[in-house]
Amino acid sequence: MLDYPSKEAMEKLNQQKNRGASLTSDLKQNIALFKGLFKDDDTFIARPFNNKADPNIRFCIFNMDGLVKPDIINEAIIKPLMLTTIQFSEKKRLDTLSNQVILINEVTKTNNLQELIESVTYGDTILILDGEAEALILNTKYFQLRSVSEPPSEQILSGPREGFNESLMVNLSMIHRRVRSNDLKLRYYTFGRRTKTKSIICYMDSLVNKNILDELYKRLDKIDIDGVLDSNYISELICDNKWSPFRTIGFTERPDVAVSKILEGKIVLLTDGTPVVLTLPYVFAENFQSNEDYYLNYIYSTFGRFLRLISFFIAIATPAFYIALVAYHQEMMPPQLYIAIAAERLTVPFPDAIESFLLLIVFDILKETGIRMPSNLGQALSIVGALVIGQAAVEARLVAAPMIIIVAITAITSLLIPKINTPAIVFRYFLLALASGFGYFGFMMGLSILVIHIISIRSFGIPYMTPIDKLSFKGQDLKDTGVRAPWWNMKTRPKASGDSVRLNSKQSGGNN
Predict the structure, then answer these.
(1) What is the C-alpha separation between 470 and 331, in angstroms, rounded?
(2) How many domains, in total, are found in the chain?
(3) Pair 68, 121: CB distance under 8 Å
């Protein structure tokens, strides 16, 4: 029988583990090394055993309880190794095991201790053989994962109902199932000095812009952080215009959206442990696009995009425009409208600007509360809270009824643009502050700053206002921006991609 190493050997190797310790050809020392590395970790399992036909052939496997499936280890690793009668070559014993004995689909041989640690903590099983200074990494991963379902934040009326989950390989399989081509390229990255989080960069080699790809690699290589738990960690570290509220890197939880971006020549970055994947580069028009735009009639989809675009400007500008009119430019309103608003404001104690700020903050509090509460209770709280508080405030003469209407319009339109919600909140208060202090002049000054800011943004070298940054109305540039042209008329991809041809003209129908 194989004995465990002594306490003295354990302590000696535990002291050396931070001084470049590595595997040796002595099985007991290797066991002591791993047990020292995973000291005080009760989930770490070391299982030594011998070959039945030749007791001098001694093995030990290491794995983490809860990350592996015991049946796989018992039937595909331990049983074959114990019962095999194959004669081993002195120089290629590990190769013989991996090629003729072990019943595992993925086997890697290495003596890199860091690679072994990362593998065993990710669900692999490590096999060491007495007399060998190398080890085999055996794929025995078995995680309890959330099932594939439609993302609640990206629900649609028509189209696929699949969504990414927290497994990197499951997410990758959804992309592979939709893109069955060797032109799809994948590159692994590891982020986090402590978490060692795996990520995969996906792109079509013939479509991607190589300059953008090289720039992405440069930014990723500069990341030095102790842990990455979500894709937003990476997004904030590599994005352009780090102080801007506008996102320059897109995100989605839907595999069909990710694949559509890949087919446009864009790059998708998947991160283990999160269903949210990143897409880049990302332009302003994408904030108002939905994946179901391409599954519904193009006329209806175009109408929906116009509604989202208008809703963005209503959400940020309505309170500020109202305050500018009521407080500074009453002459711009019809007399009857101004008289009605003035009559409502006779018994209200607060100025218009303070009233609008207070109501908007209350609305944001109710919205955040509804999001954090359980789904059913949160929806009821948001609706009932807004109705009760609004009605009670008007009856108590604390706020005017027109202001309730303005805030309600702002709230409803902001819910229609979830992708651009953060800029909407920031610039809503920014425009409101300028309009409260300077009237219509301040309001227009704020809009000018907003437009200049959007025009100045870049996403990996691509202008944020692409493809309308050069005001070119020729060709295919505007056929998938504010409007959604029919498929037979969208013959080319965005200019940033490597191959511009999307649809063969011989197969297209309709009129150009």
Answers:
(1) 38
(2) 3
(3) no
**What sign does the CA torsion over 473, 479, 481, 484 have?**
positive
The H-or-E segment that residue 357 falls in is helix 352-372
Per-residue pLDDT, 512: 41
Find the Cα–Cα–Cα–Cα dihedral 203, 207, 211, 213, rounded to 10°: 0
Encode 333-349: b = buried (16+ Cβ within 10 Å), e = exposed. Answer: eeeeeeeebeebbeebe
Burial (CB < 10 A; 0-12, 13-18, 19+), residue 184, is middle
- Report in angstroms the alpha-carbon separations of 326 from 214, 354, 407: 53, 13, 15
Residues 95 and 184 in one domain: no
Q: Which domain holds residue 68?
A: 7-138
Side chain identity, residue 315: A
Helices (H), 139-185: 168-178
> 3-state class of 22 per DSSP?
coil
Span 434-470, pLDDT tens digits: 998 898 899 999 999 999 999 999 998 888 887 775 6
Which helix (H) or strand (E) segment holds residue 252: the answer is strand 250-252
Q: For the residues 346-355, what does the mean pLDDT come to?
A: 81
Could you give the CA distance from residue 67 to residue 134 in angstroms, rounded to a whole number? 23
pLDDT higher than 90, residue 21:
no
Residues 6+ apart with CB under 8 A from 486: 298, 510
The closest of 355, 284, 403 to 411, measured between CA atoms, is 403
350 in a domain, yes or no?
Answer: yes
Return the H-helix or E-strand segment holding 197. strand 197-204
Alpha-carbon distance of 125 to 61, in angstroms, equals 7
pLDDT > 70? residue 155: yes
Given strand 135-138, what is the order of strands in its sheet?
A: 44-50, 58-64, 125-129, 135-138, 107-110
Q: Is the domain of 328 the same as that of 242?
A: no
Q: How far apart are CA 195 and CA 510, in angstroms?
A: 54
pLDDT of residue 472: 53
- Does the predicted model carry a pTM greater than 0.85? no
CA distance 61 to 86: 20
DSSP code for 505:
G
Cis peptide before 281 (omega within 30 of 0): yes
For residue 15, what pLDDT is reported? 47
The band of 60, judged by pLDDT with boundaries at 50, 70 and 90, is very high
Do 402 and 306 share a domain, yes or no?
A: yes
- The answer on 430 and 327 residing in a single domain is yes
